[in-house]
Amino acid sequence: MHSASQRRPLVAANWKMYKTVAETEDFLDRFLGSIGNLGEVDLVLCPPATALAAAVERTRRSPIRIAAQNVHEQEAGPFTGEISIPMLRELDVAGAVVGHSERRALFCETDEALARKVPALLSAELLPILCVGESEAERDAGETEAVLARQVDADLAAVPDPKLAGVVIAYEPIWAIGTGRTATTEQAQEAIALIRSRIAVRDSAVAARIRIVYGGSVKPGNAAGLFAQPDVDGGLVGGASLDPEDFLAICEAA
Q: What tens digit of pLDDT does each residue of 66-85 get?
């Protein structure tokens, strides 16, 4: 098994429906000057679709990669309001978040759709950041392991084993997103180890290489403890990523 030290940490900022183009450029102007010592961490910024092009331009000569917050699996078609992989590639976008609990709950994104989106991104050499996680009711009912196994199995069903290492999985307990309630370091480690063991059922070598990050009220004050866990390879950061100083502190913790 690879140790965590052989997996390059990744920290991604999910801005959700915040920040105009002007606000995105302002954030980057402030943030880019401070990232000189973050060479060992992969940094991914996920702004709204309207700011993707501006974010790519602003970060061109930097180590930051830009990812979308969603994508459609078809190359083109009658899908009003959706954005395709070729559209993202044209902008030099490097990847996409898929399966975020908000997209699952509010916009009916299904495991069936994710089973198409993840391989489509990999085929286009884009980075899929796949979100999985249980609700508060599911955790209280002792169903965490079953829910995570179901999501991981279904969402990655069409990905060939050798390609699995190209996916980043974000464990986001739904009860900890935007609630201020964070999973304890032990809860995060336990759930992410479960996910890794689920990948190991398919391929133990890939399970040792695949990066699994934690998301759910990650803040400067708790990031170091979470990231120090042996199976936690970084974070998907929501609210705290909207402030450049807070996000920088979280990146430094990685």
A: 999 999 999 999 999 999 99
pLDDT in tens, 216-254: 889 999 999 999 999 999 999 999 999 999 999 999 999
What global pTM score does this model have?
A: 0.96
Contact 231, 186 (CB under 8 A): no
Q: Which residue has the tokens 């995060």?
A: 188
Q: Which of 73, 100, 102, 134 is catalytic?
A: 100
Does residue 172 have an active-site annotation?
yes
Which DSSP category does 84 fall into? B
Instruction: Look up 112 and say whether it is catalytic.
Output: no
Domains, the chain, with CATH or none: 7-73+82-253 (3.20.20.70)
